[in-house]
Amino acid sequence: MAVLYLGSCDAGKTPSSRKEFLKPYHIDGLLINKVSFRDDDRTKWRSFREGTGDDVLKLQRFLFNAGFMPRSAFDGVFGYVTQASVRLFQEYVRTMEGVSSMVPDGVVGSGTFGHITRWEKENKVSDWGKMSSQNPSKSYSDWMQLLQQAKQHYTNNPGPILQHLNKLPNTYSTKKPSEWTFNTNDIHLIGIRRKQTESAVRRENDDLFVLLINGMAFTFWGSTDASVNMAKRKDEAFLIEGQHLYRFGWHKISVESKIYRALKPKNPKGVMIIRDWDNDNAYTDKDIQVKDNQGNVKGLRVNPSINIHWTGIGRSNFSAGCQVIAGKSYLNHKNELQDCSKFASSSYSGLTTSNKKTKGAYNVFTDLILCYAPKQVTHLYYTLGREASLDLSHNFGSQYAEEVLNRLKSV
């Protein structure tokens, strides 16, 4: 069998219109009208390449049957969803089966083919393929319960910033507390903010992110707050706490050498932020009280560029206001620590064909979203709160965030 990777096509399966085939994915910046795939771990474009058999279709059927590709179109084209599913299969073999030599790079060579053959002989199905929102893990249910408790609490007890939000006629991709929604058929991401009221010019990656998808909970880490040195302005932006609607998209869409998969505000106008109006390098209720020269409260602003993206391995905070996720480690659906540091790149420079690095845990995050999103769903609900809100549930408590973060950083 030939090596299969992004852009590979079975005989006669190359789309008649490559542009139309890619259109649902290429909706941002320099990707618009592109007729090649963006291989973001290799920072290069991949053309459609037609083979002589039906190897891609066989691969897609395997990934579907094994529980990694529920959205399969069985089209014989190794596209973005197939690449993400292959990486998840490789990651599952690496972590759940203990094959430490496996690197989840999305390339199907002899090593990956060998594991596929083994799985097919044993009729194996992954845990991930057996889970669902109707058959959730306890952790998933606990987090969903906490979200409902948070909605009730902040609807009845909004602080100064949420009170200001409630008075606005249009909040774009940000929802008012009474509008927060937690349908289990949707994808949910929880951001847990820490130390936001402490003054800092260079912020650390000291926050948590919990992805709730397909009845499972996966935990990542990074930062929800901007570093002043990255923002390059004194009044750095802070995404306000609450719920925001994000769509699947791309980051760095104006710089061809840096384009990669990320999440963007669903409404093109953006999400609601508050700037550090009092210039104390912190996010506090004081910021909502600062007035301009005419005596008007500066208040909240809408911002289109607060994405959810990668921050290397977590060594540096690459946020100018975005929500950033580290690639060094994560907790899987069983709350088991997974170390990606052997192959996770710390920056763009490691993402080349020769280095064979990946974005590590960040890829697990984006691949889960792309593969396990329900049909026709191209967005998720991001609910950002501070660690004190964990006290709303007896299943967690405010100390939970620090304990989990220390565990994630221990690798």
Your description of this structure?
With 411 residues, the protein is of the alpha+beta class. It folds into 2 domains: 8-130, no CATH class; 138-408, no CATH class. It contains 10 helices and 18 strands. It has helices at 18-22, 55-65, 80-96, 110-122, 127-130, 138-156, 160-166, 228-231, 361-372, 399-408; strands at residues 8-9, 37-39, 44-46, 49-50, 174-175, 188-193, 207-213, 216-223, 237-239, 242-251, 260-265, 271-275, 301-303, 308-310, 323-325, 329-331, 337-339, 379-386. The strands form 5 sheets. Strands 5, 6, 7, 8, 10, 11, 14, 15 and 18 form a 9-stranded mixed sheet that branches. It has a 3-stranded antiparallel sheet with strand order 9-12-13, with no helix packed on it. A two-stranded parallel ribbon has the order 1-4. Strand 2 (37-39) and strand 3 form a beta hairpin. Helix 3 (80-96) crosses helix 9 (361-372). The mean pLDDT is 96. It holds the Pfam family PG_binding_1. InterPro entries: Peptidoglycan-bd-like (IPR002477), PGBD-like_sf (IPR036365), PGBDSf (IPR036366). It comes from Hwangdonia lutea.
Describe the SSE topology.
Blueprint: E1 8-9, H1 18-22, E2 37-39, E3 44-46, E4 49-50, H2 55-65, H3 80-96, H4 110-122, H5 127-130, H6 138-156, H7 160-166, E5 174-175, E6 188-193, E7 207-213, E8 216-223, H8 228-231, E9 237-239, E10 242-251, E11 260-265, E12 271-275, E13 301-303, E14 308-310, E15 323-325, E16 329-331, E17 337-339, H9 361-372, E18 379-386, H10 399-408
Parallel strand pairs: 1-4, 6-18, 14-15
Antiparallel strand pairs: 2-3, 5-10, 6-7, 7-8, 8-15, 9-12, 10-11, 10-18, 12-13, 16-17
Helix pairs in contact: 3-9
